[in-house]
């Protein structure tokens, strides 16, 4: 993973340089905009950079360049892919900011979420009005700013790509990803509120639809395909990247769903059982509802989505979900989807080194603890 590790450094450098350029505009407008600068850097300084890595290995899988990211003369060749990988990280940060507002989450990666930071700024500054309203409004604007900047960063990279057809294909995939993840986010909040009026028989299917469009495509499949597009992928290569990326993305999100209920808060940076308090209608919950007795199902439905759940109530729900076999079934689904993804790499028209690295990434994203 030497290339991948170096890519993370290159992405960090590219993001820092880009933010320095853009935030200088903010400082020219007014010193009052300094929090937008500080908070944008804060939310882009960490993370696992999985989307950036998938983008890079989609590019390498198609191009089979085997180039050395450490080489001092490789900057021009790698500029488009590093810029695209960095743009995905900005897009991800924007999505997280908006997601935290929608879910009313207090924390992100073990620290206050953006809207809580802005609320704290309001309180400490002694400003007029409601601090929570200011926090939400300011965080929405910061998310919008990062979303726009992700477009600019992508376009800067694609402008340096000699193959204009490849640039257009990469841009089209990025725009499709943006539409799909927004649609998936809407479907997610819809399920939290409309589940009662939907047929019981469709709830697993509807949960899977949210997984695919809110997370699986934009977390794994789209970054792979964007990277492949920049390298000038053929139809067969696009098909191989998608055949690997979609099932792996589903497995990735299923792991996230388990962590949202059972994750260690010291590792995840989120309170234990956070998805239970937020009322997430995940595949885990859909499977549990199928397996629970009518009385247990009524209790789950009554408590799910209560932001004031006590720790003992969270532990009780965790036991109920685990004991009914839902966790084991989700683990089996994760394993099945990973196997499907890995089989798609067999004899795929992709570089051998990239296939090996994608296999390693598949393990990393589905066995993680945060």
From TrEMBL:
Protein's name according to its UniProt entry: Geranylgeranyl pyrophosphate synthase
GO MF annotations, alphabetized: metal ion binding; prenyltransferase activity
UniProtKB keywords: Magnesium, Metal-binding, Transferase
Organism: Agromyces badenianii
Membrane is among the record's keywords: no
Cofactor: Mg(2+)
UniProt KW Metal-binding keyword: yes
PROSITE patterns (alphabetical): POLYPRENYL_SYNTHASE_1 (PS00723), POLYPRENYL_SYNTHASE_2 (PS00444)
Family the UniProt entry places it in: Belongs to the FPP/GGPP synthase family.
């Amino acid at each position: 993973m030497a290339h991948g590790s170096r890519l993370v450094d290159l992405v960090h450098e590219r993001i820092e340089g880009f933010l320095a350029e853009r935030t200088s505009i903010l400082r020219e407008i007014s010193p009052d905009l300094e929090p937008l600068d500080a908070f944008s850097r804060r939310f882009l300084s960490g993370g696992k950079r999985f989307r950036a890595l998938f983008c890079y290995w989609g590019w390498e899988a198609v191009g089979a360049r085997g180039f050395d990211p450490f080489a001092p003369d490789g900057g021009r060749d790698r500029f488009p892919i590093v810029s695209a990988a960095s743009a995905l990280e900005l897009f991800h940060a924007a999505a997280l900011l908006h997601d935290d507002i929608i879910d009313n989450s207090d924390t992100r990666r073990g620290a206050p979420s953006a809207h809580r930071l802005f609320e704290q700024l309001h309180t400490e500054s002694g400003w007029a009005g409601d601090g929570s309203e200011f926090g939400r409004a300011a965080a929405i604007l910061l998310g919008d700013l990062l979303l726009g900047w992700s477009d600019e960063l992508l376009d800067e990279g694609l402008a340096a790509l000699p193959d204009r057809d490849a640039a257009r294909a990469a841009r089209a995939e990025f725009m499709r990803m943006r539409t799909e993840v927004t649609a998936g986010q809407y479907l997610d909040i819809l399920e939290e509120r409309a589940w009662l009026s939907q047929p019981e028989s469709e709830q697993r299917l509807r949960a899977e639809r949210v997984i695919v469009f809110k997370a699986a495509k934009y977390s794994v499949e789209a970054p792979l395909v964007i990277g492949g597009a920049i390298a000038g992928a053929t139809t067969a290569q696009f098909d191989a990247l998608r055949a690997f990326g979609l099932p792996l993305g589903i497995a990735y999100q299923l792991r996230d769903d388990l962590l949202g209920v059972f994750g260690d808060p010291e590792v995840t940076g989120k309170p234990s059982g956070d998805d239970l308090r937020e009322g997430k209608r995940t595949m885990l919950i859909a499977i549990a509802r199928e397996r629970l007795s009518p009385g247990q199902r009524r209790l789950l439905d009554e408590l799910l989505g209560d932001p004031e759940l006590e720790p003992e109530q969270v532990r009780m729900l965790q036991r109920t979900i685990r004991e009914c076999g839902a966790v084991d079934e989700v683990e089996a689904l994760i394993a099945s989807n990973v196997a499907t993804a890995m089989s798609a790499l067999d004899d795929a028209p992709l570089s051998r080194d990239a296939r090996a690295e994608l296999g390693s990434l598949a393990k990393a994203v589905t066995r993680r603890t945060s």
